[in-house]
Specification:
The complex is a heterotrimer of chains A (624), B (145) and C (375).
Chain A lengths: L1 E11 L3 H12 L4 E4 L11 H17 L35 E5 L31 H5 L9 H15 L33 H10 L3 E4 L2 E4 L3 E2 L14 E7 L4 E6 L39 H6 L6 E4 L2 E8 L6 E8 L9 E12 L3 H11 L15 E9 L14 E3 L14 E6 L4 H4 L3 H9 L4 H12 L2 E9 L7 E3 L14 E4 L3 H21 L2 E2 L10 E4 L2 E7 L30 E3 L14 H20 L1
Parallel strand pairs in A: 1-2, 1-12, 2-9, 3-18, 12-22
Antiparallel strand pairs in A: 4-5, 6-14, 7-8, 10-11, 11-12, 13-16, 13-19, 13-21, 14-15, 15-16, 17-18, 20-21
Helix pairs in contact in A: 1-12, 4-12, 9-10
Chain B lengths: L2 H16 L3 H6 L3 H11 L2 H17 L3 H11 L9 H11 L2 E3 L6 E3 L3 H5 L2 H5 L22
Antiparallel strand pairs in B: 1-2
Chain C lengths: L5 E3 L5 E3 L4 H9 L14 H28 L6 H27 L17 E3 L6 E3 L6 H10 L17 H18 L31 H16 L17 E2 L2 H10 L42 H24 L8 H17 L22
Parallel strand pairs in C: 2-5
Antiparallel strand pairs in C: 1-2, 3-4
Helix pairs in contact in C: 2-3, 2-5, 2-9, 3-6, 3-7, 4-7, 5-6, 8-9
The chains are: A alpha+beta (624), B mainly alpha (145), C mainly alpha (375).
Chain lengths: 624, 145, 375
């Protein structure tokens, strides 16, 4: 059966990439349909309904004893989400949604539902560095992007507007980056999010610290982190939106009038909630006031008369015509009960199709359809940031567990000639104590209870420990490896009969060497700050890998990237520089799957910029 | 012992175990919830002897120091009362209760408020992540007033 | 008449405004503005005094609204909380706007003095029939008092120096005095230091806009902002059929309380003189911590844990007022620090309201003065 309605563009997924494309196209007058796999109530944008649904998320989070990123959100049998609680040390296994072939289990998750993983992203909005776009020509590693940083600059500006970035441009002193990186007059929409008290202590102790690495000396520098959460508006910021300039065939940013002041975008459920970050210190998994950006805000500001959303509609595949050059429709299954294998099948048609279902889901849908894969690159080059954590006790109280997850980072090792030997990394200072690596403060309590402490004595011990917990990240860039991949297998399907992703994954020595390198840097930073190192890795834990006889534990960053990479040739890439499939002119892919390499930036901002880039290309194609 | 008297005793016990005073504990709104929760989750005989032991502690000891010493001797050792004292502390501190042991252990958070009223966050001079937010920019200075 | 009962804000939000400009001009300036005879406010000093009173008047409702707000049990009555909270935050905005007006004419607002917080029950005198404002828990009774506060009755009695019969009359007198004194004072009366004005940059969390006051024009806008959302110039407009409702419209204070009282939302075509007829707004009147009206520190045994908790609350409340005082006396950026204190205040109030008094009632915050330099 076929729905009669015809849309200009059909988009699969309502995460940030799909939402930005939908918003941009609807404001340009195009009719858009979004197919969303998640529950209807999650897409309710009426204030009362949205508030009730969000309160449900919050209550689920409060009462869930394991507060992993997906803990507030429904995990549906009809459209399951990858979840970090499913990760096991010994591969292969198929007990979670992801079928993990190993040898190393893939360590990240995402949320399949309205708004996508922006519901639990941290909110860090770093641009990629110019050298990140040319790893092959600069360092002889990985691949170059099909364009340089300059091409991305105006799209980054659009993304920073749409997300609502708070930050201080002047403080962004980055390796091998000149003043043109932002442009001399550029400011972010809002002032920087205040850096934490802890950041201040660490910055004081590491100011101008020289660390040795591979025989070279590097000066440690801390900088405030730009973030997609609301702070005081920057009165110098005059941009008011993005619009399609038909005559020039380009997206343009436009300014407000003389008296225009940028307004922080509040929550979708209350215009007076979320106008500022209120320090809930729970950005991951959930910002209770929605001061942190999520894609529902973008959907809410789309031109609603041109936007149709089908919820509870899980896409199985794209349909190809006989020549296999064109997509003729999208097949999806609509369910009414999220725990039952009951559904109706539908096909929807549009001029152009966009898959924006996350890197893993996009690869899965393409493989299931036999589409876009003449290069044999679909599903390959799966990447993530490998987050190695080091932690210790500070000599003075730094009062963690307050503020956004991270407000300061050390960008020193984001670029350099060392990238010929091992990966680059970024080091965010973490404001949330040892919660991630040890499960503190619950473990702080159990340690004290094991010593027989109670009452005032217990209070004092916990206070002394908890207020001194310091955590540092080393988020190492994973480079593309064709064997790290998503495949499908008839043996593994979900209850709607859709494929479950089968993941093969390993960590190359190029990355492992960065663990060793960053550990030497960590030791020097801790020593300079008088921090007592408490880092311990257990070799039997999942994702604990060996290098030179030493074990290093890494965590996933939730940065699922690279399964349908963009390139300059159909031979070795899935999409062209506009993110149009080389094999099918009317199929675009959106999301982090497009990224040829990852750099050291959290990828959401880049994904958003790329979404604007492909929205522009889609509009051009529709107009031609 | 009637429930109202037991509730009073539970409040007193909770204060000794947590290091917070009775009124501070009432201020969390969790006193009755936890009292009934502990009643429901603990074997009757074990609970009775636990309360009886505490009554003895309060009868024969006056000063805080003496009470603490008595509790350390007769209540806190791991084998006493199936670790009930630690379970009560954990309930107040984290809003969590664990049933069973080892692989079969299952942890519950009885209500959203139980999590939000966890005392451990006050001890760390902060607030439970995702609740009782301190307001914009509060993290930039020490929490000392 | 050009009726304009809706205001579009920068955020594309629509707000009800309980005045229209033509009527405003007629009411405000009907008399010959050059004559001070018969006017209740004649001199610049009297105007400063009146504006200090305005600050105090705007403040009086805040402890009452907060008492009801904080008594609602966590996780219940989300829509009632939203409505009451919105009004309370706007009352705080009005207080700061009144301080801006006073600063604009070279006065110095005092917000941290003993006696700034009124004694509750507070007798609302600006009415033909004075009524009591209490510190009380969330109930149909307390909400109906709030409706009364936000819907003053029109009066026929003329004002006299220091004597007003409605809030609208009070602000009308202030407006007329400002207008007249500005015209007849060489160089005008707006001589205040511009840097003392608190402006919108640091304000958020409810409707309304913090307006910097630099001249008669901005003073006019500031006064209309104060009376437009709440008090109105007289009660008649609330009962006119010109008030517009609608889902995306932010209601004036009276209607926000009325929605709670009648447990219904207003619909687009509702009549303002009638109760709302829209979809239900569920209210759980029993999900409340009950305390005795107008509790005082003296009701707690000195030195007890309860007494300390009540004192602790008062310290925070006085810190909050002191913070606003500092902000209004040359440190505008200070105002945003108040948000953190507001949250702290809430947590302390909620804790108090969970502490049993032993007689079936719970404790409550007392909103009393504490000299901060003596603690």
């Amino acid at each position: 059966m076929s729905d009669k309605k015809q849309y200009d563009v059909v988009i699969v997924g309502s995460g940030i990439a799909g939402a930005i494309i939908a918003k941009t196209l609807t404001h340009a007058g195009k009719s858009v349909l979004i197919l969303e796999a998640g529950l209807e109530q999650g897409m309710d944008l009426d204030p009362t309904g949205a508030a009730a649904n969000y309160q449900n998320y919050l209550n689920t989070y409060y009462t869930n004893p394991i507060k992993v990123p997906n803990s507030p959100y429904p995990n549906l049998k009809v459209a399951p989400s990858a979840d970090v609680i499913d990760i096991k040390a010994d591969t292969p296994y198929d007990t979670g949604y992801l079928v993990q072939k190993g040898p190393v289990p893939f360590a990240s998750d995402n949320f399949r539902g309205p708004g996508g993983t922006t519901l639990h992203w941290l909110g860090t909005t770093l641009r990629m560095l110019p050298n990140d776009f040319k790893m092959k020509s600069k360092y002889g590693v990985a691949v170059d992007w099909p364009f340089e940083y300059e091409t991305m600059k105006r799209f980054y500006e659009m993304a920073e507007f749409e997300i609502g970035v708070s930050g201080n441009v002047g403080e962004q002193v980055l390796p091998n980056v000149d003043k043109d990186f932002f442009g001399s007059k550029y400011v972010f929409p809002m002032e920087k999010i205040p850096q934490s008290y802890m950041d201040g202590v660490i910055m004081r102790n590491t100011d101008n610290l020289k660390v040795k690495l591979n025989g070279s000396e590097y000066k440690i520098r801390c900088t405030s982190t730009p973030q997609g959460r609301n702070s005081d508006p920057n009165i110098k910021y005059k941009r008011k939106g993005v619009k399609w300039d038909k005559r020039e065939g380009a997206l343009k940013m436009y300014n407000g009038g003389e008296r225009y002041e940028y307004q922080p975008v509040p929550s979708v459920f209350d215009p007076y909630q979320g106008e500022r970050c209120e320090g809930n210190a729970s950005c991951v998994p959930i910002c209770p006031v929605q001061a942190k950006y999520n894609a529902l805000k973008t959907i809410k500001s789309a031109e609603s008369k041109n936007l149709t959303i089908y919820v509870q509609s899980v896409v199985s595949k794209v349909k190809l015509d006989k020549t296999k050059k064109h997509i003729t429709g999208i097949e999806y299954k609509r369910y009414t009960r999220p725990d039952k294998s009951e559904y109706t099948e539908h096909t929807i048609e549009g001029e152009i199709y966009v898959l924006a279902g996350s890197a893993i889901e996009n690869a899965k849908m393409l493989l299931a359809s036999g589409a876009a894969n003449s290069s044999d690159q679909v599903g390959r080059n799966l990447m993530d940031h490998m987050v190695m954590l080091t932690w210790g006790l500070t000599p003075e109280k730094v009062y963690p567990y307050r503020g956004p997850g991270s407000t300061t980072n050390i960008p020193t090792f984001r670029d350099g000639v060392f990238r010929k030997d091992h990966t680059a990394w970024i080091s965010p200072l973490d404001n949330w104590g040892w919660a991630w690596p040890t499960g503190a403060p619950a473990t702080t309590l159990s340690d004290c209870l094991a010593k027989g402490q109670f009452g005032k004595h217990l209070r004092a011990s916990i206070h002394e420990n908890m207020t001194r917990q310091f955590l540092l990240h080393f988020e190492c860039e994973q480079t593309p490896d064709p064997n790290n991949r998503v495949t499908i297998d008839e043996k593994y399907k979900d209850i709607l009969g859709n494929y479950r992703p089968v993941i093969s994954y390993n960590i190359t020595d190029y990355v492992r060497k960065a663990f060793e390198a960053s550990m030497t840097v960590s030791k020097q930073i801790f020593e300079a700050s008088g921090i007592k190192d408490e880092t311990k890795y257990n070799p039997t834990d999942p994702d604990c890998v060996e290098y030179n006889g030493v074990f290093y534990k890494f965590n996933g960053a939730g940065h699922i990237v690279g399964t349908h990479r963009m390139g300059s040739s159909p031979k070795d890439s899935v999409v062209d520089p506009d993110m149009r499939c080389w094999d099918h002119k009317n199929l675009f892919l959106a999301g982090c799957g497009n990224m040829p390499t990852l750099g050291t930036s959290n990828p959401t901002l880049t994904m958003a910029a790329l979404a604007f880039k492909s929205a522009e290309a889609i509009l051009k194609q529709l107009e031609s | 012992m009637r429930n109202t008297e037991r509730l009073k005793l539970f409040a007193k016990i909770s204060a000794v175990l947590t290091g917070f005073n009775v009124m501070e504990l009432w201020g969390t709104s969790m006193m009755e919830t936890y009292f009934y929760w502990v009643n429901a989750q603990t074997k009757g005989a074990e609970l009775d002897s636990f309360y009886a032991e505490f009554e003895k502690v309060f009868t024969y000891n006056v000063t805080d120091e003496a009470i603490d010493r008595a509790v350390a001797d007769s209540i806190m050792p791991k084998e006493s009362f199936g670790g009930l004292a630690n379970a009560i502390i954990t309930l107040w501190y984290l809003g969590q209760w664990t049933c069973g042991e080892g692989e079969k252990a299952k942890t519950y958070i009885p209500t959203p408020e139980a999590y939000q009223q966890g005392l451990i966050w006050l001890i760390g001079q902060t607030h439970p992540p995702g609740a009782k937010q301190p307001g914009y920019g509060s993290w930039a200075t020490t929490p000392d007033k | 008449m050009n009726k304009q009962y809706l205001q579009d804000t920068d955020n594309n939000k629509k707000r009800q405004i309980l005045f229209n400009e033509e009527l405003q001009e007629a009411v405000l300036l009907q008399a010959d503005a050059s004559k001070s005879a018969g006017e209740p406010i004649r001199t610049l000093d009297e105007l400063k005094e009146a504006l200090q009173q305005a600050i105090e008047l705007e403040h009086t409702t805040i402890p009452a609204y907060l008492s009801a707000l904080y008594s609602i049990k966590d996780g219940t009555n989300p829509e009632s909380i939203k409505n009451i909270r919105g009004v309370a935050v706007e009352e705080m905005l009005h207080m700061v706007l009144a301080a801006n007006l006073l600063n604009a004419i070279g006065g110095a607002p005092v917000i941290n003095k003993p006696g700034f917080i009124p004694k509750y029950p507070y007798k609302m005198e600006l009415s033909d029939e004075p009524f009591e404002v209490n510190l009380d828990y969330f109930s149909p009774d307390s909400i109906s008092v709030f409706m009364h506060i936000e819907k003053p009755q029109p009066t026929n009695k003329p004002p006299a120096p220091g004597v007003y019969h409605s809030i609208g009359q009070f602000y009308t007198a202030i407006y007329r005095a400002m207008h007249r004194l500005d015209k007849h004072t060489p160089g005008g009366i707006f001589v205040g230091d511009h840097s003392k004005q608190i402006t919108s940059e640091h304000y958020y969390g409810s409707g309304g806009k913090l307006i910097g006051v630099y001249d008669m024009k901005s003073a006019h806008i500031a006064i209309l902002e104060i009376i437009g959302q709440g008090e109105g110039v007289d009660g008649s407009i609330i009962d006119s059929d010109s008030v517009l409702f609608g889902e995306d419209v932010e209601l004036a204070h009276y209607f926000r309380f009325s929605e709670i009282y009648y447990e219904r939302h207003y619909r687009e075509d509702d009549n303002s003189s009638q109760p709302p007829t829209g979809k239900p707004l569920p209210v759980n009147w029993s999900a409340v911590q009950k305390f005795k009206k107008n509790m005082k520190m003296n009701d707690y045994e000195q030195g007890s844990a309860l007494w300390r908790a009540a004192l602790d609350f008062n310290i925070t409340y006085n810190q909050l007022l002191n913070n606003i005082h500092i902000a209004c006396n040359g440190n505008p950026a200070h105002i945003s620090k108040g948000i953190g204190l507001m949250y702290d205040l809430k947590y302390k109030a909620v804790a108090l309201m969970n502490m049993p008094m032993g007689d079936g009632w719970y404790a409550a915050p007392t909103f009393e003065y504490v000299p901060l330099d003596q603690i």
